[in-house]
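Quiz preparation item.
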């Protein structure tokens, strides 16, 4: 099975990461050459992809008008396993730093969190097999290709949390409400897995119960809360700071 990735940033990162099998690159006729486009063409040829020019209207019809003149046919997203995540942390000489997404369904929110996760050096991301946005071309594009440099595991969250605890990783759930601790009063350095819940309901009750502790962001303004992507991104950077980053 293959899928189509479009947008110059996403296409470039797929080619740079070299984790997928590349079939072909289509370039809209009349695209103005620049450094980014030259790099994409070079990388595609190095991967052995068939490069062809196509009428822009063909890409418009398939992807809308946000394709930026390029579309790449590649194999489906290569999911990892938990052992890969632990191995990456060990190779880096760092305590594990993991992000778990509990049934987030909005592709844009998922993409934002994945982009932040890649930026802060997360060793791996875990998403459930059901009721969550998968790593499809929409998420790849919205994350500007950050997905291609992340180890993303698709598995039962309870099983993932059990494996993390066996590896002496503390599991922190990001959620307001009773029993939560202000994030600035919690030690976030060391081995940590951060759980971010869904956009409307937050974490599922079972997931919340399985966390070692629940943390919340201080809210001093007039709005009640931040959305999942914003709150998760803030928490990830606070954890990075606590890790000495």
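Solution:
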């Amino acid at each position: 099975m293959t899928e189509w990735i479009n947008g110059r940033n996403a296409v470039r990162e797929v080619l740079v990461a070299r984790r997928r099998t590349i079939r072909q690159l289509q370039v809209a006729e009349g695209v103005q050459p620049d450094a980014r486009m030259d790099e994409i063409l070079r990388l595609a040829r190095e991967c052995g992809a068939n490069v062809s020019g196509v009428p822009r209207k063909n890409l418009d019809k398939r992807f809308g008008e946000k394709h930026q003149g390029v579309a790449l046919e590649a194999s489906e997203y290569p999911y990892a396993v938990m052992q890969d995540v632990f191995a990456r942390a060990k190779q880096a000489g760092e305590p594990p730093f993991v992000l778990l997404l509990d049934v987030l369904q909005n592709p844009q929110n998922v993409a934002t969190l994945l982009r932040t996760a890649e930026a802060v050096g997360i060793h791996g991301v875990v998403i459930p097999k059901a009721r969550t946005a998968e790593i499809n071309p929409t998420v790849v594009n919205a994350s500007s290709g950050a997905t291609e440099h992340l180890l993303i595991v698709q598995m039962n969250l309870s099983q993932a949390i059990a494996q993390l605890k066996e590896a002496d990783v503390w599991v922190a759930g990001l959620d307001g409400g009773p029993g939560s601790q202000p994030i600035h009063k919690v030690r976030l350095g060391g081995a940590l897995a951060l759980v971010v819940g869904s956009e409307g309901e937050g974490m599922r009750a079972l997931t919340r119960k399985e966390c070692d502790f629940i943390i919340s962001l201080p809210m001093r303004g007039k709005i009640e809360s931040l959305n999942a992507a914003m709150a998760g991104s803030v928490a990830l950077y606070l954890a990075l700071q606590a890790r000495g980053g």
